[in-house]
Automatic annotation (TrEMBL):
Record keyword Transferase present: yes
Ranges for domain DNA methylase N-4/N-6: 17-75
Organism classification: Bacteria, Bacillati, Bacillota, Bacilli, Bacillales
Protein name: DNA modification methylase
Species of provenance: Kyrpidia spormannii
UniProt-recorded Gene Ontology molecular function terms: DNA binding; N-methyltransferase activity
Pfam families: N6_N4_Mtase
Length: 373
């Protein structure tokens, strides 16, 4: 199997913003490139940052993505937009004209240390403009681009993020971050927000020659409601389901993204909720919920559809991931056809390596099943 995306002219858009536990683009791309035929629909019911949707786009295939996290939905939507750097920059300028002063700026020590005052005001204006209207492709592209630029390392020579020194993949815990900045006397510095937008718009949208087709849906993939919102032609026609459910024990998707969630309209503080997320109380309960997803997914699939998913666990939870896989497929209409260790084919880029700093991931497996429902 062609296990790389080498030879592809441009895949920059996939990196518009990092996401926890994203899988490498080569995983869905290689499967779809080798086996999918023209016009076949692709689905990812836990789409995260939309890696599968982007792989489908690169191959000219229409796709649907589902995720219950607003951050995941915003990032995935950007993987399907058709726009240009000029339009994205124009969208930012338009918003800054529409919102000359922010209605609301979060206050407190964290915010004073996290962003320069002027930078925070511009970020708030962009946030308010996008919350009021994020309908066009250019605005959706801008929103994801801003989520990717919101927090990250300061960089030695050039500023490419809006924040003070931070991780880029997950948001800082406020108390910890303030102590860190104070100890090192790291004060937030002014950055050129529009300049960063221009550069990122060029990087992510400048060379993109493919067209996005399909839809990203915000919803709970265990529940029927979200499947009723499928785009015309997709329901009953899904041929490929390429996904990775949350790993057992990995349940901090929302709190770890609290700053991006704030940008999308959430509260200016860590959100400890788990709304719409798979519960992780025991391996049996976890498997039962994934099972519900496989059953729902089967209902929108064409006969003979293929399900491929990458799965693992984290070391701090004692559970056998393969047992969870077997239980999750039992009696669903999906027949397990192959288990393949994910191995180290993508050394250094495996999903495991993107998992939380303290919880190392266990071995990962790629699971193949066929819809015989
Ligand atoms: C392992 S990540 C997927 C990462 C994705 N493969 C990528 O490359 O970005 C699992 C995703 O499942 C989502 N999720 C968890 N429970 C869900 C549910 N009940 N319905 C829909 N999405 C859910 C999480 O928000 C998270 O984005």
């Amino acid at each position: 199997m062609d296990n790389t995306t080498e030879g592809l002219a441009h895949t920059a858009l996939n990196g518009i913003a990092p996401y926890f536990t994203m899988f490498p683009l080569s995983f869905p791309y290689a499967i779809l490139k080798e086996r999918a035929r023209e016009g076949e629909w692709v689905l990812d019911p836990f789409c995260g940052r939309g890696t599968t949707n982007y792989a489908a786009r690169l191959l000219g295939l229409p796709s649907v993505g589902i995720d219950s996290s607003p951050v995941a939905v915003a990032l995935s939507e950007a993987k399907l937009v058709n726009t240009t750097p000029e339009r994205v920059i124009r969208a930012a300028e338009e918003i800054l004209e529409e919102v000359p002063v922010p209605a609301e700026v979060p206050e407190g020590e964290f915010w004073e240390w996290a962003f320069d005052t002027e930078v925070l005001a511009v970020v708030c204006r962009l946030r308010e403009g996008l919350l009021a209207n994020c309908r066009s492709h250019a605005r959706k592209a801008l929103r994801a681009l801003l989520l990717g630029a919101l927090h990250g390392p300061r960089g030695k020579t050039k500023r490419t993020y809006f924040s003070n020194q931070c991780q880029r993949t997950y948001a800082p815990k406020p108390n910890y971050a303030v102590t860190f900045w104070k100890r090192r006397d790291l004060r937030p510095e002014p950055v050129d927000v529009l300049g960063i937008i221009r550069e990122r718009a060029d990087r992510y949208f400048g060379g993109e020659r493919t067209r996005g087709r399909g839809k990203i849906l915000r919803g709970d993939s265990r529940e029927e409601a979200v499947y009723r919102r499928f785009p015309a032609g997709a329901s009953g026609a899904i041929r490929w389901v390429v996904t990775s459910p949350p790993y057992y024990g990995m349940n901090t998707y929302l709190p770890d993204q609290w700053l991006r969630l704030w940008f999308l309209g959430g509260a200016p503080e860590v959100a400890y909720g788990a709304e719409g997320q798979i519960r992780h109380s025991s391996p049996g309960e976890f498997a039962a919920q994934i099972r519900r997803v496989w059953m729902r997914v089967g209902q929108v699939c064409a006969p003979g559809a293929q399900l491929v998913f990458r799965f693992g666990g984290i070391r701090s939870r004692k559970a056998d991931p393969l047992e969870i896989v077997r239980l999750s497929l039992e009696g669903t209409g999906w027949r397990l056809t192959e288990l393949r260790p994910a191995g180290t084919a993508d050394a250094g880029r495996r999903q495991a390596l993107h998992i939380a700093r303290t919880d190392r991931a266990k071995e990962e497996t790629d699971v193949f099943a066929r819809w015989e429902g």
